[in-house]
Design goal:
homodimer; mainly alpha; two-stranded antiparallel ribbon; 7 helices; 65% helix; DNA-binding
DNA sequence: CGGATATCAGTGTAACTGAAATAA
DNA sequence: CTTATTTCAGTTGCACTGATATCC
């Protein structure tokens, strides 16, 4: 695809621009992570665990924008790779407590550096000032949406 | 999800912001189009046909960022709904010529007004000036990528 | 009884891969 | 033979729905 060949109606439609940008971002990121056998959502979960400490699967889902029902398999995989521990919450309930392991922290560090390289590639057309501007605008659009 | 609860590592990661914004944009758009039995990519194809005139399926794919192999079923559906005509190119080759019909133009007009309402909803947190800024930044990031 | 959670089964869409067939 | 196109078959990741089970 050559996006400069796209119809004006699409090129000026925010929802289309967002999905197309997301598409190329996903492609760049996935390709980068492929070499490590890692997935985008695993990074999100590990980042949430490191920043906020142990959490339930439902919390992780809310924080990362991942459905709780998808979180099950996600935590299964991370747990199988010893990047997180999953244990029933001693406080009771059905709740699990998911904790990042030292292996998980190491993995997170690796993924972080890899991903930051990809961001540079993705945002190459923009100046540093424009990049922070874009980040700010995207955060505000996202924060403006309430759902469920 | 409450995006303001997301880890800093995610909230400042452009690729994550793009995919999350794309997700909510897709949800808003799809929900709006559901009532009409329409799909997002149908709008893209119709828009391309109206702006550039009859085109091959491969051209449509390049213009709209849709894989040629997915374009087959897409044109099948549009054709079944009499929104486009598909005929072998008299110039020869395997190429088809896809043409928008008057039904298709009417459909495109309906979809356009519906979609512009959704954009307002999506970009509600931004001023008019910020919206054009966002559009500009997204266009430039997209244009900066060359692939295949 | 709610209310929150975890889990499972299944669906739909989009994006993509790879190969075959067609025709200049 | 090369190239572009259309088409088909299949895979993957992701988002989502709905139901069930568990626990306070």
């Amino acid at each position: 695809m050559d996006s400069d060949l796209a119809p004006t109606r699409l090129r000026q439609l925010p929802s289309w621009l967002l999905t197309q940008n997301a598409r190329i971002a996903t492609r760049l990121v996935s390709h980068e992570l492929d070499a490590l056998g890692a997935h985008r959502r695993q990074f999100a979960v590990l980042a949430a665990l490191e920043e906020f400490g142990p959490a339930s699967q439902a919390d992780l889902g809310r924080r990362c924008g991942i459905d709780r029902s998808d979180m099950v398999a996600l935590v299964n995989d991370l747990s199988a790779a010893d990047q997180v521990d999953r244990a029933p919450d001693p406080a009771g309930g059905r709740r699990n407590v998911v904790t990042i392991t030292s292996t998980g922290r190491k993995r997170l560090r690796t993924l972080t550096t890899r991903l930051s390289r990809v961001q540079d590639e993705l945002l190459a057309p923009l100046s540093a000032r424009e990049r922070t501007q874009l980040i700010d605008l995207l955060q505000r659009v996202l924060d403006g949406q309430s759902w469920r």
